[in-house]
Design a protein that fits this description.
mainly alpha
Length: about 425
């Protein structure tokens, strides 16, 4: 009987090459599989975290409006008290504050869990942390319809769980980069994280279609089921390191080993210079600008669908389409901004520092000025949508302004 040799020795038993699985996956680079898992993982994650932003407009019963309240809206309030062209049967009597708590509860633990995520990844590895986090989020989505009909407190609890679990995904995936991705490829691999933009862009139109044809409960059943299916694929194809991967080619494993500097492992042996960080003007400037950009971004993500229904009066399908389209545009724009940033630096038109400042300013100043402008445009819906699209698109210039420059490239998509 032939002795089985493990992948640490860069050899495989002969019978493994005869395996159908090896024939199917053996020629596919493991790094490409990991890239697709990362991209689709963030896509699915943002589907499950943002589906309720649109679904809630169909879940909650619309409050009655007085005859003289039509001036507050960009559509005519009908005699039957419907505030949109179609009524999708919302039956939940949630007040405005309750809806705010439901939408915000996701983020209560989201930031804290990112700190915990680093420690959890050190103990359990990325495969378990990322996989279990996605599974917890998916199972919570499947439970939301039943919880919503029982009490809003249960929905808040489930959203809290989703927020805590989703916060673990970012540090888990960053840790995996240190084990798997050679240094020259890391900027390109980081583009997989932009799957979240596609996730948002796809989620809203999908949810609008599901609500219009199957009701709002189908939204959570669909996204939750997609999440569970993704977890199964992740379990089968993801591994914490090249040494534990059963199907990676010997050439690729050797290449990764020779060209990977595990900055994550090295950072664990160093003390965090908290004093230097907290007293650094550069660190504070990055933190403040990032806070402002995310505030504007999430204003569109969370409140956008509600505004489009209750103020603009869009049907649920049109709402979903117009809420999601700007984020598809933003994904494309992020590639464009990174390309322009590269050209400005490599062509010696601007210094690296000035390019970063320019792109950060575009992502901050322009959207920041356009957001209040929406409130002054009244019911000029076409112009409102144009301003809306420009604001969301310009936010992605920040990706070209982040300090991840490597050998003349900003965002190697």
């Amino acid at each position: 009987m032939e002795e089985r040799v493990y992948s640490n020795d860069l050899t495989y038993p002969k019978e493994a090459k005869k395996c159908l699985v090896y024939r199917i996956f053996g020629q596919v680079p493991a790094r490409l599989v990991l890239y697709l898992l990362s991209w689709s993982g963030f896509l699915v994650s943002f589907m499950m975290r943002n589906d309720i932003n649109l679904a809630i407009v169909a879940m909650v019963a619309e409050p009655p409006h007085t005859a003289n309240s039509s001036a507050e809206y960009c559509f005519v309030v009908e005699d039957n008290n419907n505030t949109a062209p179609l009524d999708y049967g919302g039956t939940l009597n949630w007040s405005g504050p309750v809806q705010s708590y439901v939408l915000a509860s996701f983020y209560w633990a989201y930031i804290v869990s990112q700190i915990v995520g680093g420690l959890a990844t050190q103990k359990l590895g990325t495969k378990r942390v990322f996989g279990y986090s996605q599974l917890a989020t998916a199972l919570s989505s499947l439970c939301i319809p039943i919880a919503a009909e029982s009490h809003f407190g249960f929905v808040i609890a489930l959203r809290f769980v989703q927020g805590f679990a989703s916060g673990l995904t970012w540090p888990a995936m960053y840790a995996l980069v240190g084990h798997w991705i050679p240094v020259p490829e890391r900027s390109r691999f980081m583009s997989s994280f932009q799957g979240f933009s596609i996730g948002i862009g796809v989620t809203y139109p999908l949810c609008g279609f599901l609500i219009a044809h199957l009701g709002w409960r189908s939204v959570f059943y669909t996204t939750g089921s997609i999440g569970v299916a993704w977890c199964l694929i992740w379990y089968l194809l993801a591994f914490d390191s090249p040494e534990t991967h059963p199907r990676i080619s010997l050439r690729e494993q050797k290449y990764i080993r020779e060209n990977t500097v595990n900055t994550y492992e090295n950072s664990r042996q160093q003390q965090v210079p908290w004093k230097s960080i907290l007293t650094s003007k550069a660190a504070w400037s990055i933190g403040i600008t990032t806070f402002g950009r995310i505030w504007v971004h999430y204003t569109f993500i969370i409140s956008g669908p509600t505004y489009m229904k209750r103020i603009l009066g869009f049907s649920i399908e049109k709402n979903g389409l117009l809420s999601g389209a700007p984020f598809i545009c933003s994904y494309i724009a992020s590639v464009f901004f990174c390309y322009i940033a590269d050209k400005l630096v490599t062509g010696n038109y601007m210094s690296l520092t000035n390019v970063r400042k320019l792109m950060t300013a575009l992502s901050q100043v322009v959207p920041g000025a356009l957001v209040p402008l929406v409130s002054y445009l009244g019911c000029d819906i076409e112009l409102v949508l144009v301003v809306w699209f420009i604001a969301v698109t310009m936010i992605t210039a920040s990706y070209a302004g982040r300090p991840i420059h490597y050998r003349g490239g900003f965002c190697r998509f």
